[in-house]
Amino acid sequence: MSDPLKDAPLISGELKDELLALALEAARRAGELLRDGRPADLGVAATKSSPIDVVTEMDIASEKLITGFLSERRPEDGFLGEEGASAEGSSGVRWVIDPIDGTVNYLYGLPSWAVSIAAQKDGETVVGVVAAPMRGETSHAVLGGGAFLNNAPIRVRPAPPLSQALVGTGFGYIAERRAAQAAVLGSLLPRVRDIRRGGSAAIDLCDVACGRLDAYYERGLNPWDFAAGELIAREAGARTAGRPGEPASHELTVAGSPAVFDALQPLLEDLGAWHD
């Protein structure tokens, strides 16, 4: 059986501080570009998995800004970005980037979008930053150092019974997946206080961290969608995982106050929230 302390990445406090400072600055710059530079006639540059799953010209510009900024300062690091940035690197550090989490919200002028940047050391997320410029909010966390919103410490909400829990979720872009998710939602909704669908996984995870949601779940997320937000939620006291016994993944991501998580995760398993 593995020892979590032995298996944890070896990373100095100085390196954590450096990675956090870089992630905060990169997210700030990208957020300002996106907020102030959004064209009135914003166009869709391409589609990804379906015509609903769009990438805008600003997604591409944001990712180029972030990767360029980080590469100048840490040229040996690797990258994994939603819009194609991919490099192995040689330092053991990899940046996981979502240049606009909530692209459809951004396209329509809705405020719930964010820049999400995580730094991983030897595969473990050690720094997470989620900047939501239209909210005037930046959440961040360092592994083992707690979670913060605009530099103030945050904690999850005290857990209510599941029947009184406010739960966030999201939907995929493929029609068949959306239909399956709607069926799960129909079974879940009578068992909780209510459901919220904000359109940004990173923001939803931060909302769990600061007590605006009791829990959040979604199928179909990619690493750039949840890497930063999951760390922030965990450092704020949330439990996070995927299916029972598994980490958060494309198959399922669940986060919540511990008691709500304990009730919600097995229910989602029984409802088949992990498959289309």
From TrEMBL:
Pfam families attached to this UniProt entry: Inositol_P
What GO annotations for molecular function exist for this entry? hydrolase activity
InterPro entries reported in the protein's UniProt record: IMPase (IPR033942), Inositol_monoP_metal-BS (IPR020583), Inositol_monophosphatase-like (IPR000760), Inositol_monophosphatase_CS (IPR020550)
Gene3D superfamilies assigned: 3.40.190.80, Fructose-1,6-Bisphosphatase, subunit A, domain 1
CC cofactor: Mg(2+)
User: What are the record keywords, sorted?
Assistant: Hydrolase, Magnesium, Metal-binding
Enzyme type, top EC level: hydrolase
Superkingdom in the source lineage: Bacteria
- What's the Enzyme Commission number for this chain? 3.1.3.25
Catalysis: reaction(s):
a myo-inositol phosphate + H2O = myo-inositol + phosphate
Q: Which PROSITE patterns match?
A: IMP_1, IMP_2
Question: What protein family is recorded?
Answer: Belongs to the inositol monophosphatase superfamily.
- Protein's name according to its UniProt entry: Inositol-1-monophosphatase
Q: Which organism is it from?
A: Streptomyces ochraceiscleroticus
Lineage in the entry?
Bacteria, Bacillati, Actinomycetota, Actinomycetes, Kitasatosporales
